[in-house]
Amino acid sequence: MVLEDIHLKRVNFMVTTTCNLHCRMCDVPEFNNRENNLTLEKIKEIIWQAAQAGAEILEISGGEPMMRKDIYEIIAFAASLKLKVMMVSNGVLIGPSEVQKLLEAGVSLIPMSLEGPEELNDKIRGKGNFKKTLSAIKSFLANSTKIPELQVSVGITLSRHNYKIVRTFSKYLLEDVGVHCITINPFTGTMMSQENFKARKDEFIIPEELIPDLIFEMEQLAQYSESRPGKLPSPRYIRRIPEYFDGNKILPSGGCGMPLTFIGISPQGLVFPCWHGPVIGDLKKSVLSEILASTARKEYVEKALSGDCPGCLSSCYSEIF
């Protein structure tokens, strides 16, 4: 690897850990610590630094970004720097007026989260939330003809709850609702406390005895993906999901190249080479250009490319399979 080839492209900025929901597979609200959170001005300064470093995409995440009253200002500032702005949301707080404000601010990529049909989704995400999220999705889609660059997607956390219906649900979202694409992220305990993971893992993990069934379902999904290119994760990615649940280390051939172009930033300004990696810098103490050029980042990139990392099957992997 030539270290000079490390170029920043995507920044995932977790602007808050506060969330309006408490989904069963996520403890982010319990991790909430507002102490030392970045101010709006500091967030703008970091976004400007990212743009100066060549970033093309700003992914705003949380928690729930809509919990921030200044979210429109954050988006508008990033858009003014010619960044393509994505906002990851559960959609529950987004009505028609919020849709218009977000679009006017400059958001163009809208991933929202659903786990399956209404009864299943609301079992995991809270009663009444399926209808609210679906309404937000449809409100954004209604603006697609006016804003050609607008991309509305749905993120699904694959688990024991929904692996049997993920293909039919994906077909519904793509063909009936009209979302532009779907991402699938196998359940991981990294978003839960150790105590809650132990208590709930059997609810989400697909056990060994169900792996043959999972292989069958993922093959059906992979074949559907082949018929809808670009609308779902790649068939190769989908076919590796059973290996993940079977406890195997998952790495693309040639190692993982995501840290070459990606960083994650926490609400406190800590920088990560990927969300499964170590802290490589603190934006309250250093500027982004120093962190990007740091030995810590270069060493992690080298480790990831050589396969010397735990491996995962995060949805970003779909791009490199």
Structure description:
The protein is an alpha/beta fold. The protein is built from twelve helices and nine strands. Strands 6-5-4-3-2-1-7-8-9 form a nine-stranded mixed beta sheet. Helix 2 packs parallel to helix 3. The longest helix is centred in the last third of the chain and has 17 residues, at 211-227. The model has no long low-confidence stretch (mean pLDDT 93).
Q: In sequence order, what are the helices and strands, one letter per element?
A: EHEHEHEHHEHEHHHHEEEHH
What is the number of E strands? 9
Q: β content, as a range?
A: 5-15%
Average pLDDT number: 93
Give me the number of helical elements: 12
Query: Strand order, biggest sheet?
Result: 6-5-4-3-2-1-7-8-9
Rg for CA atoms = 19 Å
- How many angstroms separate the termini? 19 Å
Low-confidence sequence ranges: none
Query: Which geometry do the CA atoms define?
Result: globular
Structural class, from secondary structure content? Answer: alpha/beta
Specify the helix fraction band: 25-40%
How would a crystallographer describe the biggest sheet? Answer: 9 strands, mixed
List the defining traits of the structure above:
single chain, 321 residues, alpha/beta, nine-stranded mixed beta sheet, 12 helices, 9 strands
